[in-house]
Design goal:
The chain is 61% helix and 6% strand. The chain contains 21 helices and 4 strands. The protein has a 4-stranded mixed beta sheet. Helix 1 packs antiparallel against helix 4, helix 2 packs across helix 3 and helix 7 runs antiparallel to helix 14. It is globular. It starts with a helix and ends in a 6-residue tail after the last strand.
Amino acid sequence: MFLLLFLGIINLFKLWLVRFLPLLGDEAYYNLWSRYPALSYTDHPPMIAWIHGLIGQNEFGVRLGAIITLLIATWLIYQIGKEAFGKKIGAASAVIFNLVPTYFVGGLFLTPEQPLIIFWLLAIYFTIQIIKTGESKNWYLLGISIGLGLLSKYPMVLFIPGLFLFIVLSEKHRSWLKRKEPYLAIVLASLIASPVLIWNIQNNFPALAHHGARLGNPNYLSNVLYFFVLQFLMYSPPLFIFSCSTFFFEFWKRFKQFDDYSLFLIASSLAAFIPFLFVSPFTLVGGHWTSTVYLGIIVLLCHKFLTAFPKPFKTSRFWFNMTIIILINVLFVSYYAFIYPIPEGLTYKTNSELPAFIKTVDADYVFSNQMGVGSLVAFYGKTDAYLPSGYWKQFDIWGHPEVKKGESVLYFVFGDPEMEKKLKKVFWQVKEDKTKRLMIKDSDIPVKTRIYICKYFKGGRLP
């Protein structure tokens, strides 16, 4: 009853909060994918495009989709805790999951993390069932879960080494290495995820080039420090400290003493954490990239907290940790929803006025020089929006119209102070619209976006 009451209150709060949260550029970009059905996309596999396609083309639908997917994840983490350690641990895990800043605040935005989290949790659940019952059928359900996860986001592949690390370390379950089921599960997962591989082969592996381009020269101080600070804040100090203590000390000292459920939860989380730690010197690792790392650790934290400490200590420690986590959420929500600096003249109604403006201009095409801005214009402006060749690989794959002499373009420019000069070289008339027309809380888009009405194309390459 307490869990249902908690979920009711927190989700009603989210439904009230979403009216202050316009789409992010990335969200609009993923929504745009749903207009271009494909086996996969440059940045990620196709699952997020399918979800956006189901929820429709309006802001509330996107926010509701994010809330619903997090509710599904909540039910799964409850089931995992209950099956492994009992109902009390399941309920506690569900509560903590909903309060961790990344899952609470980040869970308001519909991105590839949501389906990835769902299928990662589903994979954990069926692995728990394998540990609990030893039934072979659960291997095939596990394979399906991994395959669907691979259709959601590439880090799902990290579940596999974590699974095999557990099997190798567990004397009771090591015999699975000699049986066909684990290998058939991987084959099944690969078949389900094969559309992603087929698409990448057809398009010369743009996903590999896209993600490989993120890596640069190593910076072992600032980049690694950025990684740890972001993890510390986004997953809350109590959870992050417990995770590091478990990964770097407890696990290596006494892994033979852990029960099989705990050993698996640690192994699967550790296998997801180590690769991001290794690449952190070479790129700025986004806080949301590690969203799967802490899922099993949440259950383990609740199990240890509710069973290992005497009751008076449990009570005081619980409220201390909850206070820290809630305070971080309050700071994130307060800033993003209410304190975020909005340029003068913009209101929450501004985006709904964009279609009328675009019709008034009556341009032949709408272009942008930035992926997020172009996607937001397409979403809120209810129009087709393009990027010139060379700005973003996915837009190049979709293609763009060839602007003919005499035609006009409405161009939304992010940054690039020289763009007006460039446009005047290929259009006879270029006029800047001084009104700000995107009310977005993302990457200074409202401040740095300028709008140019470009008439009578001369010819040449659109800048």
